[in-house]
Structures are given as structure tokens and as C-alpha cells.
């Protein structure tokens, strides 16, 4: 099943009018892992944010379809309720809300008609913290507050595990991770992935793709996909850099 279809998408930054996305095309089917690789500043995070409906960007042309329906008119919250999820490149600290409560609230918000008890949800959250090797003490701390880079990424990936989205957009989930945390985060992604889920893995580096094997690799530059290949394309980029592809 087609989960996401991005068609000739052009988008600008509302604040300054700069056009960042210059005609992006991308189709993700259920069960597929797509990696987007590209240099810094090429618009990868912008693409993720526009798919999620961030009000900081304006769509100028093209369309974003989720299971065949345009989502351009939907708010970020409505998109999340449909099953879109994004982990942030730089997760924010939330003062006054503890991790466990935050996760419970996110689950309740997205699954309005689910009658699972708070106790069961809380147990599920405990299990998820084991999966990502995040000490349960973190569940009683304010969200991301004073967390290390790796701990923040683990808390992001816990959300993915809890929410079980249909489309998971992971924006540089590998950045700032040492090799052990990278392996744990990657193994968690593999564990949380289902046959009904599409994954868009945005990364600057090839190394996470040794653990989370992509079906497709898209090289992204200056606001559009310039070439698409299989997992081997990521290795070529690692060896030769982006310059050979940008020409
Ligand atoms: P990448 O994730 O590939 O590193 P980004 O999408 O973060 O790239 O940024 C692409 C370009 O768009 C950069 O020049 C960045 O400054 C600009 N940009 C993105 N979002 C904003 C914003 N909210 N306000 C101003 N400029 C932005
Ligand atoms: Mg960047
Ligand atoms: Mg980015």
C-alpha cells in the first residue's frame, strides 16, 4: 500500500520567503525503509517539517498524499492522528512535564478511542525504556531536560515505539550518538518497524544504514532528490562524498 506520496513539492520559509523545497518527488509504500542523505543545509529537515505540516513553511506547488488523500489542509495534530510521526533532529526540552506523563498524553491524544488502561500503558512505557536502554529514572524527569544527546534520541525513539505510526520520519536520529547508542537506537527502529509502516530515515552519514538497511536511498541536494538507488548508494557516498554526485 502507498503510504506517502510527495509530488513536485515546492515550499518556502514563511518568515523570509526563501524557497527551500524545489520540486521533491518521493513515494513510500508500507514496509519500506527510505533513506534520504544529503549535505547540511540541503533542506532535509525542511522536507520533514513540511510533511508534518509545520506552520513555519508554505507549500507553493505540488501535493503531499497520505494513503492517497491530500493532507495539505490538515494541521500537524490531525496528521499525527492519521499516523504520521516525526522525531526531531534537535529534540526540545519540556519543563514541567515528566517523560512518562508526556508519553501517556501523546498516546491518548493520538488514540482517542482506545480504552487501554493507564496501568497497561505505563507498563508498556517501562518495556520501551528497557528496549532503548534508558534507565527508568528518566521517566520521572522533565522531558529531555538535561538529557545527553543520546538520551534525547532514545526518548524520541521510545515515542515511535509507543505510537506505532504508519509513517515514521526520523530526522538525523543518528546524530550525536556514540557507537553503542547508535546500535541501540538502530535495533530499536528495527524492532518497532512493522509491515504496515513506512520509514523515512533522514541522515547525513551512512553508518546507521549498516544497521537499519534501507530499501531505497535518495540523495538530496539543494531542495530536491537528485538520484535514487539501493543500499549500496549510501556506501558510494561515504567513500566519495556528495561532491561527485552534485557534480
Ligand atoms: P538540512 O536539514 O538538510 O541540513 P534544513 O532543512 O535544516 O537543511 O535547511 C535548509 C535551508 O533552509 C537552510 O538554508 C536553512 O537556513 C533554511 N531554513 C530552514 N528552515 C528555516 C526557518 N524556519 N527559518 C529560516 N530559514 C530556514
Ligand atoms: Mg542540518
Ligand atoms: Mg536537518
From TrEMBL:
Residues 4-247 form the ABC transporter domain. GO terms for molecular function: ATP binding; ATP hydrolysis activity. SUPFAM superfamilies: P-loop containing nucleoside triphosphate hydrolases (SSF52540). InterPro entries: AAA+_ATPase, ABC_transporter-like_ATP-bd, FeS-cluster_ATPase_SufC, P-loop_NTPase. Keywords: ATP-binding, Nucleotide-binding. Belongs to the ABC transporter superfamily. Ycf16 family. This is Fe-S cluster assembly ATP-binding protein. The lineage of its organism: Bacteria, Thermotogati, Thermotogota, Thermotogae, Petrotogales.
Amino acid at each position: 500500500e502507498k503510504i506517502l506520496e510527495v509530488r513536485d513539492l515546492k515550499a518556502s520559509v514563511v518568515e523570509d520567503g526563501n524557497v527551500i523545497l524545489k520540486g521533491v518527488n518521493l513515494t513510500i509504500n508500507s514496509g519500506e525503509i527510505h533513506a534520504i542523505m544529503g549535505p547540511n543545509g540541503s533542506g532535509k529537515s525542511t522536507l520533514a517539517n513540511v510533511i508534518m505540516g509545520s506552520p513555519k513553511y508554505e507549500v507553493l506547488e505540488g501535493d503531499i498524499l497520505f494513503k492517497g488523500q491530500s493532507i495539505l489542509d490538515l494541521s500537524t495534530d490531525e496528521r499525527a492522528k492519521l499516523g504520521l510521526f516525526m522525531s526531531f533532529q534537535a529534540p526540545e526540552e519540556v519543563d514541567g512535564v515528566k517523560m512518562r506523563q508526556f508519553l501517556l498524553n501523546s498516546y491518548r491524544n493520538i488514540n482517542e478511542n482506545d480504552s487501554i488502561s493507564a496501568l497497561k500503558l505505563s507498563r508498556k512505557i517501562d518495556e520501551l525504556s528497557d528496549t532503548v536502554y534508558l534507565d527508568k529514572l528518566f521517566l520521572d524527569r522533565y522531558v529531555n531536560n538535561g538529557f545527553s544527546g543520546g538520551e534525547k534520541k532514545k526518548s524520541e525513539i521510545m515515542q515511535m515505539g509507543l505510537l506505532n505510526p504508519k509513517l515514521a520520519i526520523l530526522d538525523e536520529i543518528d546524530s550525536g550518538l556514540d557507537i553503542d547508542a547508535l546500535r541501540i537506537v538502530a535495533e530499536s527502529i528495527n524492532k518497532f518497524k512493522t509491515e504496515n509502516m513506512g520509514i523515512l530515515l533522514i541522515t547525513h552519514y551512512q553508518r546507521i544504514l549498516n544497521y537499519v538497511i534501507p530499501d531505497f536511498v535518495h540523495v538530496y541536494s539543494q531542495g530536491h532528490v537528485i538520484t535514487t538507488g539501493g543500499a549500496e548508494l549510501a556506501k558510494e557516498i561515504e567513500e566519495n562524498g556528495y561532491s561527485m554526485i552534485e557534480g
